[in-house]
Amino acid sequence: MRQILFIYFGLFLCYGSVFSQNYNTNPDSALQIILSKIDGAKLTLAQAQQIAMENSAEIKENKARLDAAEAVVQRERGIFDPELFARLEYIKQNQPSASFFAGADVLSTRQTNGLAGIRMNLPIGTYLEASLNSTRLKTNSSFAALNPQYDLFGQLTLRQPLLNGFMASSRKQLSSAEKALDAARETYQQAVIDFTAQIESSYWDLYAAERDYAVQYLVRDRAQAILDETKIRAKTGLVGPGQVANAEVFLAEQELLLIDRQEQLDQLSDKFAASIGQRPAENKTRFIMTSKPSSSFETGNVDALVAQAVEKNRQLQAIQNEKESLNLLANAADWEALPSIDLLGSLGSSGLSGSAQDVLFGGQVFRSSVDGDFSDALSQVTKRDYPSWSVGIEISYPIGSRSGRGERNRLQAQVVQSEQRYISAKRTLEEQIRSTCRELQNGSRRLDIARNAVGAAQEQVRIGLIEYRNGRSTAFELVRLGADFAAAQQRYSQELVRNAKAAAKLKQLTSGTFEPEKTN
Predict the structure, then answer these.
(1) Are 506 and 437 in contact (CB under 8 A)?
(2) With helix as H, strand as E and coil as C, how does 323-352 read?
(3) DSSP assignment letter at 23
(4) Which residue, 6, 25, 24, 4, is CA-closest to 14?
(5) What is the pTM of this model?
(6) Strands (E), 432-473
(7) pLDDT (tens digit per residue) in 467-476
(8) pLDDT tens by residue, 443-502
(9) Where are the strands (E) in 140-247, listed by range?
């Protein structure tokens, strides 16, 4: 009998010591011993976000969209780049002739045609082209006064639309692409912010799972201790076999729940590893979160925060840029729906040169006053010895104008759609910010209540243990109190993580421009 009492007294001291260590006034300290024993690769929030950014397929996809938008702008700007062009053609022809004036029975000609110049489109819709045309003709005709003969013609041509909106129409694709690029930049930056917030939220979910596992581990140990003590008390006749059965059932339930919590922890760790694109080290099975969430945050004036978010939110700015891109096309379509009136103009100059030949006709010899080479003809063109010019108007009026008006109406309808999408996104953003601010403002109060609940549950267990040992309570009641304490601990973890996730969401909604003030 003395030996039994001695064992019981030792267990009482040991159990009471461990129990008091794990159920103290700080709800976190009860879990630290168990949390420190969980095996895994340690990872801070900053490290997780950096790894995720480096490995994210979603971010790389958005970056590719941004690169494509930049390439479109480059392509549209290239439309206004000057373009050099040239053409060289050699023609040899033998043609029989019955005409005395052909100068040969079989007229043989060798002709070389050349064309070179530069052309470009201006942002105001003007089309310019400067060209030089040359022909070198060599023939066997006896009547050819110049052989070979050089003909040159230089010309500067212009076409200017008068009713197509000048820059509004001619530059529409480039202006639209530039706005689309601005939208792509904002979308990419917002995607980075969204992804970072998503990783932070997943990080805190895994952090909460670790705490839930530690709580369940603690409850399982308490259930084992209760069963051990109940068996000793049953041997001494202080309690009956029913209470031993209650303790055994409670322990079995907690063992099963502990397995569930471990599976949940491992599943969330695997999911988190997939989201950041990296598995733990080879000898580790899971990640262990080492960063700690803040207990409360200060949001400041909500109205001011909403106004700041509407101004800075990158998703709203992207929608606004998309709307402006469509609006540019719609304005150009207004001009393009009008009849087409183009001003045409040209300045030209001709040159003629060649090797002079004696021509015998009617018993007389004739010789051309023109004698020279290619450079002489080119000099005549550049000096405009033989100038020419032209000016004109070209009018085009599609009957009915249904195509132009239809395109204009389509683009205007898309502008309205974009405007309404902006309004809808703005309203949703305002509602989400107010809701998140409200959640953060109540977060401190929730945590205080949850912390007090943990303290109250701890006190209930302490009193219940005393009553149980004094025979005024049963093992069943002690089991119920232990489950209440576990629920209170888990609720505290949930509220702690809820606050941190709400702060991450608020930062996401304001596109990272607002950092909540942490008050631990």
Answers:
(1) yes
(2) HHHHHHHHHHHHHHCCCEEEEEEEEEEEEE
(3) S
(4) 6
(5) 0.77
(6) none
(7) 877 777 776 6
(8) 888 888 888 888 888 888 888 878 877 777 776 677 778 778 888 888 888 888 888 888
(9) 146-161
